[in-house]
Amino acid sequence: MGDTIVVTSGKGGVGKTTTTANLGTALAFAGFRVVLVDTDIGLRNLDVVMGLENRIVYDIVDVTSGNCRLKQALIKDKRFDSLYLLPAAQTKDKTSVSPEEMRYLCEDLKEDFDYVLIDCPAGIEQGFYNAIAGANKAIVVTTPEVSAVRDADRIIGLLESAELRNPTLIINRIRPRMVKHGDMMDIDDIVDILAIDLIGVIPEDEKIIVSTNKGEPAVMDSLSQAGEAYRRIARRIKGEEVPLMNLDVPNSIMDKLKNLVGMY
Amino acid sequence: MWEFIFRVLGRDNSNSRKHAKERLRLVLVHDRASISPYLMNRLKEDLIEVISNYMIVDEDEMELHLNQNDREVTLVANIPIKQIRRDYMERSQISS
Ligand SMILES: Nc1ncnc2c1ncn2[C@@H]1O[C@H](COP(=O)(O)OP(=O)(O)OP(=O)(O)O)[C@@H](O)[C@H]1O
Ligand SMILES: [Mg+2]
Q1: What ipTM is given for this predicted complex?
Q2: Which of A7, A96, B25, B48 counts the most CB atoms within 10 A of its CB?
Q3: Does the pLDDT value for residue A30 go beyond 80?
Q4: pTM of the entire structure?
């Protein structure tokens, strides 16, 4: 029986889909059987990030409403035989699935897969409650911005009242240089405020955009910093202890000058 | 002259990280204090139950709310008392 992990955030655009695609790919690469479930009904994205948009025949609503069997809707990944995607419906609205149906669906998927990763839509409406209904674990994604952290706090509260205790935190799009110059909240600030366990930190990385353009998750790119950060999180999910990535930036000439003048 | 150098070196960049953290802390104090009317009512009923052991309160006039200012959130209760129970000493002895 596998784990069902929902990737959620509250605020939109902070990296839920990117995270789901990369963690799923990294876990499949490590040999696990993984299925990614896109619950962002009406705003389907995960298929594009995975590069599987041309293979979709059925979607999640076809499954829950009995139009097709679960196996028919699962799309096999291009790269890994043990990785599958259950795409969201694009033309329906988020009320076309119920939390009850999601629970049944996740129970079925857990039979066949080691990890069921659920990509949650932004917001705290029906779509959120659908996405978390069948999950037994949660990952909260935020960026180092006031509004994103505030929404993350709200989500953590909602997860707790839904009995999804001890969610873990991913801080995405950290810019080490801005942190160093005191222009961005750092990891400790955010962990301190949200008071949940950190499972990883992802740096801002242009390769994420390149990889999304190609439909190939950044974990496949050995030179991508964000890819490396996601590979580490995948190992932590498996239960390994892995140190946080070193995101220190070398001193610039400006910094050296400041040191000289004794300003820091 | 020094002012110019400081500016060039970016000292004037007032530390926006500290701003962010402080604003976040405050906004979360408020967010987390938004208790539902249902919970507020439960709290009110529980308070009445406890206080009634000692005095009779005017339930209709009782007020209970959260007060928020920039720094903190406080629970403010205004509970008019109709009568102090004369028997509260005995009651506490019986129950203990
Ligand atoms: N670490 C990163 N570095 C650079 N760009 C990133 C990073 N993480 C995410 N992005 C970019 O941010 C955008 C939003 O990411 P993504 O779609 O994963 O967010 P989301 O939380 O799923 O959004 P939504 O709430 O709309 O579903 C994408 O264009 C993605 O490429
Ligand atoms: Mg998304």
Answers
A1: 0.77
A2: A7
A3: yes
A4: 0.83
